[in-house]
Every structure is written in structure tokens, then in C-alpha cells.
Amino acid sequence: MSNMFDICKVCFTFGKSNFTNMKSRFLIPRKFRIVGFILFIVGITSFFMVYTAPSYANNIYEINGVAKVAGAYGGCIRAIIMGLLIIGFSKEKVEDEQIAQLRLESLQWSVYINYIILVLCFFLIGGIGLLPVIILNMLTPVVFFIIRFRWKIFQNNRLIKE
């Protein structure tokens, strides 16, 4: 062991502007956010179109005595989920530590709220009525995340302008 303080080195740069962009490995490029919005809008509109004309969409068949619902609802939900994930996890113009912290806090907050709502629904709704809640539960964490994250960015931008 040459020097005990080799582990604890701190480098200072006085007078130099040595700023680097944060490298985030798991974020989608910013240009795909438009694709996410398109997928989300197509998914929502097709979901409501299928919902108003249920004769096509609800092809119910049985496998081993268990009724399974197949049809257009699955495609709509896939488009909605993919669109929300792309919207929620695409990069910002400036991706720095503050944005990363806002992202983390928003994700944590959305998971907490999601599970609080899910536990309340388990206590208040029972039986087969819980199935739509569980299906909706696939979407709510990402929706809560996007709402909270966008709200926090809006608040920060408003504070910066003042």
C-alpha cells in the first residue's frame, strides 16, 4: 500500500470551465418523444373506438376452463404502454444531476402512490371487479411519473425565470 490517501483524491479545477454532460445509460433519445406521443394518441383513440364497438373486440375463448379475452384491447394497451414509456423515459434538452434527481424522486413518488391506490382497491373492491383495476395498474405508475416529473420541471423553470 503506497499511500493511504490515494483513494481519497479530490481534483479541483480553478478558473476552468470543465463541464461535461451527464451520461444516462437507460434513457431514450429526445427525438423519440414525438413517436411516444403518436403511439399514445393512437392507442387511446383506438381504445375508445374499440370500447364503443365491443362486438369486434371481445373475442372470448376458453383454454382449460379459463376464459381469456383476446382482441383489439391488447393492441391498444400495448400502444398506450409503449407510448407512455417512451414519453416518460426520453432525455431532456439538458440532462444534468438536477433532472436526474427529479426523475428519481418522481419515479419513487409514483410507485408509492400506485401501491397505495392498489392496496386500497384490494380492500374496497373484491372478486372479478378487481380485474380492471389490475389492468389499469399497469398504466398508472408511468402516468403518475410523467405527471409528477413534468410538474416538477415546470416548477423549476418557473423558479428560474423569476
Automatic annotation (TrEMBL):
> What residue intervals traverse the membrane?
32-51, 71-89, 109-128, 134-151
Which UniProt keywords are given for this protein, alphabetically ordered? Membrane, Transmembrane, Transmembrane helix
Q: Which domain of life is it from?
A: Bacteria
| Record-given protein name | Uncharacterized protein
